[in-house]
């Protein structure tokens, strides 16, 4: 079902009819036709449209925030922050895309030429399969660079955020981009394969679960089409004795419960050196237990509901499995009574390798707490997962910083802070957290043909 269901109440607010086969065909045909002409527009023209999109989004930020909160339950303040971050992302690529995609010259004499260079050119129609947890930002971090590179987009968003999906396509159109540059397809997951296999679709990007990523990658591989995949993570947050413990605790709480705990780059496994474990654990548990769980529209709320009923069930099952395998619950651990899909801030310790939570991602406000004897054991625990998205390390020791940068198996290492996505920095993972990169110059080049030009 494609529908807006308020996670704070469980009430179905609005349902949407899936696109028909004829509507899907019409959208792909329009995108393919538009790609042929849009690729010839100038960077200056694209930037003008993109700045207009950013202006509209900033003006509408309060209403957009309310829409996102209604659809997936994030707090209003977090939702407004997301809307403004999207506007920043649009402006970043409007400002920098032309320089990022400038021709790259080489020494012509070295290759027996009078001139030789690499030119970045758009691939054409790109399919984006996006998740619900950041309904706008996840899609914008694809849309902004892709559009500025001269590609056109087809968005298949998660089925529980249809209003956000439709809003983004309409926003881009109202900013001045020609019809067909960016369209939303309200389709179920089962319809993705036929769209991706269509020869008019050149490439795909997906943010979501590992099974979804495997499926899209397999189809794209069969069709020999490029993909960028971001498939989640179980990010470590390592605390060493030299760290500022109070600052680490404060950041750890934010890093775990941001977006109601439903963030791929949220810190999920807190690995603390034994010398400071007791101090950190006491302060961390107290801070987590003090958080307010409730209506996401209330300014005093720290944690709203989980986005889906099944999501809460998944969290409960992982916590139950951990305790069945010897883990201890230090706070939280029990769903809240009443309507809505609420789950409290929870800290679990003594997690054994036999528990699923030891290696799997918990998509909710649940923190795993681990004790490490030294830096070697801390890194061993941190890497004891098939994921490798973000990572965090707290230390003021330069040698330890070098070790963490070198040995944490992740797409990013944030020292004395929490993992955050910035337009200026590449974003992505290794191992089963995905392939390719979003954001920065690396992200805009993902959906370009890097064409070699040699002139004799």
UniProtKB/TrEMBL annotation:
Q: What's the domain of life for this entry?
A: Bacteria
Tell me the enzyme class. Answer: oxidoreductase
EC numbers listed for it are 1.2.1.16, 1.2.1.20, 1.2.1.79
Can you give the residue ranges of the Aldehyde dehydrogenase domain? 2-453
Read off the Pfam families from this record.
Aldedh
Q: Which GO terms describe its biological process?
A: tricarboxylic acid cycle
Which InterPro entries does this UniProt record tie to the protein?
A: Ald_DH/histidinol_DH (IPR016161), Ald_DH_C (IPR016163), Ald_DH_CS_CYS (IPR016160), Ald_DH_N (IPR016162), Aldehyde_DH_dom (IPR015590), ALDH_GabD1-like (IPR044148), GABD/Sad-like (IPR047110)
UniProt xrefs under PANTHER family: SUCCINATE SEMIALDEHYDE DEHYDROGENASE [NAD(P)+] SAD
Q: Family membership, please give it.
A: Belongs to the aldehyde dehydrogenase family.
Name of protein: Succinate-semialdehyde dehydrogenase/glutarate-semialdehyde dehydrogenase
What's the source species for this entry? Gordonia humi
Q: What is the lineage of its organism?
A: Bacteria, Bacillati, Actinomycetota, Actinomycetes, Mycobacteriales
């Amino acid at each position: 079902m494609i529908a807006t269901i308020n996670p704070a109440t469980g009430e179905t607010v609005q349902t949407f009819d899936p696109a028909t086969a004829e509507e899907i065909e019409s959208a792909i045909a329009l995108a393919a036709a538009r790609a042929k002409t849009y690729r010839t527009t100038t960077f200056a023209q694209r930037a003008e449209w993109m700045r207009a999109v950013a202006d509209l989004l900033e003006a509408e930020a309060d209403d957009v925030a309310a829409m996102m909160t209604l659809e997936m339950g994030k707090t209003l303040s977090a939702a407004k922050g997301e809307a403004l971050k999207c506007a920043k992302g649009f402006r970043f690529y409007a400002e920098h895309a032309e320089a990022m995609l400038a021709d790259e010259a080489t020494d012509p004499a070295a290759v027996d030429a009078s001139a030789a260079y690499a030119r970045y050119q758009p691939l054409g129609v790109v399919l984006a399969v996006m998740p619900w947890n950041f309904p706008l930002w996840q899609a914008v971090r694809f849309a902004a660079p892709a559009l500025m590179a001269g590609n056109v987009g087809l968005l298949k968003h998660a089925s529980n955020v249809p209003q956000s999906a439709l809003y983004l396509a309409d926003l881009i159109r109202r900013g001045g981009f020609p019809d067909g540059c960016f369209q939303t397809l309200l389709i179920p997951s089962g319809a993705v394969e036929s769209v991706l296999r269509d020869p008019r679709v050149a490439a795909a990007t997906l943010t979501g679960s590992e099974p979804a990523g495997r499926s899209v990658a397999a189809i794209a591989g069969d069709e020999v089409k490029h993909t960028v995949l971001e498939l989640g993570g179980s990010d470590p947050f390592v605390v060493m004795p030299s760290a500022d413990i109070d600052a680490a605790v404060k950041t750890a709480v934010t890093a775990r419960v941001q977006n109601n705990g439903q963030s791929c780059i949220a810190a999920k496994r807190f690995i603390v050196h034994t010398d400071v474990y007791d101090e950190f654990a006491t302060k961390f548990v107290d801070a987590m237990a003090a958080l307010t769980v409730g209506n996401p529209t209330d300014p005093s709320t720290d944690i709203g509901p989980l986005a889906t009923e099944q999501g809460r069930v998944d969290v409960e099952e992982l916590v139950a499995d951990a305790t069945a395998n010897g883990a201890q619950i230090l706070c939280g651990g029990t769903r809240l009574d009443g309507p809505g899909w609420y789950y409290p801030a929870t800290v679990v310790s003594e997690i054994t390798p036999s528990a699923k939570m030891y290696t799997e991602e918990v998509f909710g406000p649940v923190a795993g707490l681990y004790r490490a004897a030294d830096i070697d054991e801390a890194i061993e625990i941190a890497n004891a997962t098939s994921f490798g998205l973000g990572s965090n390390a707290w230390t003021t020791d330069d040698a330890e910083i070098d070790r963490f940068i070198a040995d944490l198996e992740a797409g990013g290492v944030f020292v004395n802070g929490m993992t955050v996505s910035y337009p200026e920095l590449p974003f992505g993972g290794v191992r089963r957290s995905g392939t390719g990169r979003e954001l920065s110059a690396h992200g805009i080049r993902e959906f370009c043909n890097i064409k070699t030009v040699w002139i004799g």
